[in-house]
């Protein structure tokens, strides 16, 4: 899956994950396990007549006639339509069942203009020099989206995983987003706001409460479907309950059990040397480990490698100084099978009693959740 629509992907976490390939080529853009069922498949019409559809038209200063302009699906980056810039304007027409993300790309290349549209007449006015800052009018849904962007502008780097942030700053972000959610009941932008809250806090209990508060039509949007999947998965391995024990060999062939770590806070971290997103996340795990290792915290790495030397080399290169285990069976790793792991990196955070207190914590969310569980 492409990564350029970071703001609008169903899940930035999955957009930067190595996913197990179990689907046919025709369904390669699906981001959920096809064996799972979504909680609610009912489609509810948006306000206004769906039959009327949407139109998007406008001008982009600096373009010459004949330039192709593409309309992209905001959830997977797929091209939906192409228009040719002619007589200083362009236009698209279509229909959405619910307000949804789209993106406009000149020549199919960045910069991209993100739109959140409903079935209304949308006008765009901008410049090729700063297309992402073009003025968009005519869509009440886009107005809500821009309201959220403005309200959370100072947290943009946090959302995009740039840098490290103190707990107070992240508390402020979570609180501001929760206030936005409370003030915009029924807004089509709420699934994105809820996702951002979860992205920061890693709090599945709060996620479930916020998701259950959504109207049914918002639960079945692309982002709503993703949130519903997370809620359903949490019930399979619920918070506050012990994670099942397992045993695998470390790099020296010594059998290591999860139960042997009882009494410590443990991050069970699924990764592999061949997984690019895992290797990109490893520095964050290393920094977090260094910060909390003297507070009764450790990491237990579970590798989905099949080449032992590549695994050992990656451990050394990435400076992963905690215990590592693997059965070198790739996606067939017994522990990954035990917990239904379909994408990596992925992790489980356990308290001293071995109970689950965090899941799939990436970027700043890992340190934030640990700070809440262990203390700063």
From TrEMBL:
CDD domains: TlpA_like_family (cd02966)
Record flagged with keyword Magnesium: no
Keywords of this entry: Cytochrome c-type biogenesis, Disulfide bond, Redox-active center, Signal
PROSITE patterns, A to Z: THIOREDOXIN_1, THIOREDOXIN_2
Pfam families associated with the record: AhpC-TSA (PF00578), DUF4369 (PF14289)
Every Thioredoxin domain range: 237-376
Compartments it resides in: Cell envelope
Signal peptide positions on this chain: 1-17
Predominant location category: other
UniProt-listed InterPro entries: AhpC/TSA (IPR000866), DUF4369 (IPR025380), Thioredoxin-like_sf (IPR036249), Thioredoxin_CS (IPR017937), Thioredoxin_domain (IPR013766), Thioredoxin_ResA/DsbE_sf (IPR050553)
Protein name: Thioredoxin-like domain-containing protein
Biological source species: Ferruginibacter yonginensis
Source organism phylogeny: Bacteria, Pseudomonadati, Bacteroidota, Chitinophagia, Chitinophagales
């Amino acid at each position: 899956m492409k990564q350029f629509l970071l703001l609008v992907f169903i899940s930035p976490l999955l957009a930067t994950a190595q996913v197990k390939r179990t689907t046919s080529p025709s369904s390669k853009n699906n981001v959920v396990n096809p064996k799972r069922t979504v909680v609610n498949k009912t489609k509810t019409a948006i306000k206004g007549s769906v039959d009327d559809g949407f139109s998007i038209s406008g001008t982009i200063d600096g373009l010459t006639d004949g330039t192709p302009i593409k309309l992209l699906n905001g959830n997977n980056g797929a091209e939906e339509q192409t228009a040719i810039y002619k007589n200083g304007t362009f236009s698209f027409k279509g229909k959405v069942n619910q307000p949804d993300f789209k993106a406009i790309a000149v020549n199919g290349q960045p910069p991209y203009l993100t739109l959140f549209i409903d079935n209304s007449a949308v006008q765009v006015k901008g410049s090729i020099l700063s297309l992402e800052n073009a003025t968009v009018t005519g869509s009440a849904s886009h107005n809500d989206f821009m309201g959220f962007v403005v309200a959370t502008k100072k947290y943009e780097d946090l959302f995009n995983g740039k840098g490290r942030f103190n707990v107070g700053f992240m508390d402020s972000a979570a609180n501001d987003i929760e206030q936005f959610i409370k003030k915009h009941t029924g807004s089509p932008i709420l699934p994105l706001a809820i996702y951002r809250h979860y992205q920061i806090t890693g709090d599945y209990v709060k996620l479930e409460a916020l998701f259950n508060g959504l109207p049914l039509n918002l639960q079945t949007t692309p982002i709503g479907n993703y949130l519903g999947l997370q809620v359903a998965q949490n019930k399979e391995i619920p918070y506050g309950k012990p994670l099942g024990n397992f045993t695998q060999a470390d790099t020296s062939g010594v059998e290591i059990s999860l139960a042997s770590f009882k009494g410590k806070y443990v991050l069970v971290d699924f990764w592999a040397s061949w997984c690019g997103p895992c290797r990109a996340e490893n520095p964050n795990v290393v920094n977090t480990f260094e910060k909390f290792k003297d507070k009764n915290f450790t990491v237990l790495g579970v590798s989905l490698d099949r080449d032992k030397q590549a695994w050992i080399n990656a451990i050394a290169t990435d400076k992963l100084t905690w215990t590592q285990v693997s059965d070198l069976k790739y996606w067939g790793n017994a522990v990954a099978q035990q917990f239904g792991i379909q994408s990596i990196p992925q992790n489980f955070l356990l308290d001293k009693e071995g109970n689950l207190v965090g899941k799939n914590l990436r970027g700043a969310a890992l340190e934030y959740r640990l700070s809440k569980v262990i203390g700063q």
